[in-house]
Amino acid sequence: MTRRIMVGGIPIGGGAPVAIQSMNNTKTHDVAATLAQIKQLADAGCEITRVAVPDERAARVIGEIVAASPIPVVADIHFDHRLALLCAEAGIHKIRINPGNIGSKECVQAVAEACGARSIPIRIGVNGGSLHPALLKKHGGVTAEALAESALSQAAMLAEFDFQDICISIKSSHVKTMMAAYRLVSNACDYPLHLGVTEAGTIHMGTIKSAIGIGGLLVDGIGDTLRVTLTADPVEEVRIAKDILQSIGLRQEGVEIVSCPTCGRTDIDLFSLVEQVEQRVKSIKMPLTIAIMGCAVNGPGEARHADFGIAGGTGEGLIFTKGEIIRKVPQALLVEELMKEIQAHT
What we know:
By secondary structure, this protein is of the alpha/beta class. It has two domains: 5-247, Alpha-Beta Barrel (TIM Barrel), CATH 3.20.20.20; 255-345, Sulfite Reductase Hemoprotein, domain 1 (2-Layer Sandwich). Helix content is 42%, strand content 21%. The protein has 13 helices and 15 strands. An eight-stranded parallel sheet has the order 8-7-6-5-4-3-10-9. Strands 11-12-13-14-15 form a five-stranded mixed sheet. Helix 4 (81-89) runs parallel beside helix 5 and helix 9 runs parallel beside helix 10 (234-247). The two termini are 36 Å apart. The mean pLDDT is 93.
């Protein structure tokens, strides 16, 4: 089991639930826009957010953002360690530094001492796109071994300064490399791990990469917090992160919809039915499984694990629960009758 750190009031590691993170894409110095987006992320289920701190103008408003944020805030620091010092003074909940560009050992020591004095954890955020040239030369490119060595050497440096409040991420856009790097680090230390596939791409491809990379590690018990990175609205990152956790049984909140892929026996517009049900159940927080099946013959049996379900037929369909048929209804009323059944029992 990994050791535990606290990011604001959110525990990471030590057997705590896997925490969902995202990152604002607003200009941090625009406090109103940044706080508005943080609220959107929090409402979607985000538990920790990160903001870019590219310059002093951004660093100077961190205190204002932290004071008004509904969730803990992480400062993302590159190149200039002095920005990390300003954020620490402002009460940031966690600081992310990149070993590939944070600077000299003296710079790291200054950040460690500032964070240690205020009980602020540090995330060592290794990225395949910004590995130190010496490591690239030593390992012949961006390899799992290079990523792991970068993270572990930075952790060892922080430990020299008596700083252990550490979280590690070792991200790559290459899924197999990312997974191998996390396995190496997991075997080498007990620091909590922040999972992610960096630069994963669009919602479509980014979801696939993240589900494989993040989900595969979580299934094996590796990972304490995560961020799904997408070229999309950050709220989508949170939604997909929740879906990944729910699909492997690490979250039991909200509705999981299971539906058949359709075949030649399907006599209803199953695609439309699924979309309608998805929209109608968004506000339900209770953990439920709802099945939308296209075949009235096999549907209830195939989805007997579902709490509620519908199965379509020619002109009519079935409402069922746990595989037991409750009643037949006209096809046009399937969604309405399903919702009535759910509301009556939740």
